[in-house]
Amino acid sequence: xxxxxxxxxxxxxxxxxxxxxxxxxxxxxxxxxxxxxxxxxxxxxxxxxxxxxxxxxxxxxxxxxxxxxxxxxxxxxxxxxxxxxxxxxxxxxxxxxxxxxxxxxxxxxxxxxxxxxxxxxxxxxxxxxxxxxxxxxxxxxxxxxxxxxxxxxxxxxxxxxxxxxxxxxxxxxxxxxxxxxxxxxxxxxxxxxxxxxxxxxxxxxxxxxxxxxxxxxxxxxxxxxxxxxxxxxxxxxxxxxxxxxxxxxxxxxxxxxxxxxxxxxxxxxxxxxxxxxxxxxxxx
Length: 284
Description:
The chain is of the alpha/beta class. It has a single domain, classed as NADP-dependent oxidoreductase domain (TIM Barrel), CATH 3.20.20. Helix content is 38%, strand content 16%. The protein contains ten helices and eleven strands. It has helices spanning 44-56, 73-81, 110-124, 143-155, 169-176, 196-205, 221-233, 237-248, 261-269, 277-283, and strands at residues 14-17, 20-23, 27-28, 61-63, 89-94, 96-97, 105-106, 129-134, 159-165, 183-187, 208-212. The strands form three sheets. Strands 3-4-5-8-9-10-11 form a seven-stranded parallel beta sheet, covered by helices on one side. The chain has a two-stranded antiparallel sheet with strand order 1-2. A two-stranded antiparallel ribbon has the order 6-7. Helix 2 (73-81) links the parallel strand 4 and strand 5 (89-94).
């Protein structure tokens, strides 16, 4: 068995998900599916080895969703890791459906979410999901009804903690009138900071913030500036991006995903990187 690298993900510190404590370098499992998060990977054995290596490196939060595959990513995780090592938290999501490779369609109907929970429990081989996030608001269903359905499922013991994804501050505030919210997962990275107000709200409320697409893109003027700074510091684009996210907020829980064990190890090593004040000036 390979040994952890420089104490691994634990170097980044920890963050609370309700009453659960996880290291602040997580792993997003979506890319372990086939292209476009559709179907199974060409080499399921390698995908399993990536998951095992993540856990060896101290990653104890793994992010997935029923729409990844669809309905295959969760199964891959349980096949690789069940029975789950002590302290490992699996966070999954529901509320998007995939009729084809290119479609991600919101479905926030309470009856759909109830079916989705049962499917995720079965695939993950769990009796209760530690963190279940509503994947995206459905414009055709009142937001309060979708969140209320998850609150009912929490009371029935199917969910430990509820999170939200792709929401506004107003939606976060509305959800909190129905049930405690443990996390928010919105897109956020060096290039895309449109959820800055949501991050600020999470900081005020003590809610973990999971930035999806944490590395951002590699094109455009801002990306060129990022590359130049990374070159000056002797870092990769990915390492600089992750170090910036970790330094941005103590409630930040990056979940970079990859199919490569080498990239996984490089991402975890970024947990130990410290940026200088002038680096932040250059990135603003």
